[in-house]
């Protein structure tokens, strides 16, 4: 069982996109071989008593700040009754 006190892990991940789609979800990059397009995600996990649980994934659109997404997730955990040790 996990504790009410948890550490929150936030990971910013990029995945290459090789399709033709052009919209706010697909961002430009020069860091990937074979494509100039990427999808960007914020991944959320909680860590408690040595147990690592995946807790959420949010795709980040072009021009969107990551801060409100992070705050919304942390508020969600607090509303569930968790106490946050480290973020």
UniProtKB/TrEMBL annotation:
<protein>
    <recommendedName>
        <fullName>Transposase IS4-like domain-containing protein</fullName>
    </recommendedName>
</protein>
């Amino acid at each position: 069982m996990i504790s009410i006190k948890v550490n929150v892990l936030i990971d910013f991940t990029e995945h290459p996109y090789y399709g033709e789609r052009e919209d706010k979800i697909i961002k430009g990059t020069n860091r990937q071989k074979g494509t100039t397009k990427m999808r960007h995600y914020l991944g959320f996990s909680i860590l408690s008593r040595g147990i690592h649980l995946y807790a959420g994934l949010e795709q980040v659109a072009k021009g969107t700040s990551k801060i409100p997404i992070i705050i919304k997730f942390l508020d969600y955990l607090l509303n569930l009754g968790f106490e946050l040790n480290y973020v």
